[in-house]
């Protein structure tokens, strides 16, 4: 009887955890250790218009869990993650594709981006004074200079990209080759595309 109760409790808790793990949540509710510069909540982006009502970072809970762990590692080294973009509604993806219809830089909304699944982040690092580390290009630079394989960088730029890449890939994320700032949580492609719109406080 005890074994039966144990397996029932284990099954129910596992089910509830897996359900909770896939919902969208606000990063600010789980950590105050991040810096925000949510580009699409401003007109300082390649769309040249504000497309988010506010600069909140929503992601799947499992993405947030791994992101917080990565940030703890950076903090130990004197840095913090600065966020440019997190979950992105599918409607916004369609708008981006209209402007830049190049799958090397913008995912075709028919297939969708990992951003649309709550499993991707666009990030950089800042030092203890809040200054961004030099990564060689700006965020959303559509050119070969933004690629991880690009070698014509200074030693400092290479070192900074390597630091970001090393800790993120050790924290359950995969890099995106053409964009040094973009990281996908492992196995996020299985999550469904979403057009969820969050409410701003």
What does this structure look like?
- This protein is α+β, with helices and mostly antiparallel strands.
- The chain is 30% helix and 16% strand.
- The chain has helices at residues 2-21, 61-76, 90-99, 155-169; strands at 24-26, 35-36, 58-60, 80-85, 120-126, 173-176, 179-185.
- The strands form two sheets. A five-stranded mixed β-sheet has the order 2-4-5-7-6, with helices on one face.
- The longest helix is centred in the N-terminal third of the chain and has 20 residues, at 2-21.
Task: Tell me the helix content.
Answer: 25-40%
| SSE succession | HEEEHEHEHEE
Shape descriptor reads globular
Strand order of the largest sheet: 2-4-5-7-6
- Radius of gyration, Cα only, in angstroms? 18 Å
Strand residue percentage: 15-25%
Low-confidence stretches: 2-19
Short description:
This protein is α+β, with helices and mostly antiparallel strands and 201 residues long.
């Amino acid at each position: 009887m005890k074994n039966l109760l144990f397996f029932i409790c284990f099954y129910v808790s596992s089910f509830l955890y897996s359900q909770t793990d896939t919902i969208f949540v606000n990063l600010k509710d789980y950590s105050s250790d991040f810096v925000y510069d949510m580009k699409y909540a401003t007109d300082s982006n390649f769309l040249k218009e504000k497309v988010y009502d506010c600069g909140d970072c929503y992601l799947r809970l499992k993405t947030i869990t791994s992101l917080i762990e990565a940030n703890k590692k950076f903090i130990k080294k004197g840095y913090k993650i600065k966020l440019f973009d997190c979950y992105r509604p599918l409607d916004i993806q369609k708008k981006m594709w209209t402007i830049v219809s190049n799958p090397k830089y913008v995912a075709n909304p028919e297939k969708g981006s990992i951003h649309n699944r709550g499993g991707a982040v666009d990030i950089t690092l800042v030092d203890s004074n809040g200054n961004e580390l030099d990564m060689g290009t700006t965020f959303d630079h559509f050119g070969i200079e933004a690629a991880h394989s690009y070698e014509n960088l200074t030693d400092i730029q290479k070192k900074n990209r390597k630091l970001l890449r090393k800790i993120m890939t050790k924290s359950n994320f995969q890099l995106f080759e053409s964009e040094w700032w973009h990281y996908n949580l492992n196995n996020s492609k299985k999550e469904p595309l979403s057009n969820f719109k969050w409410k701003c406080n």
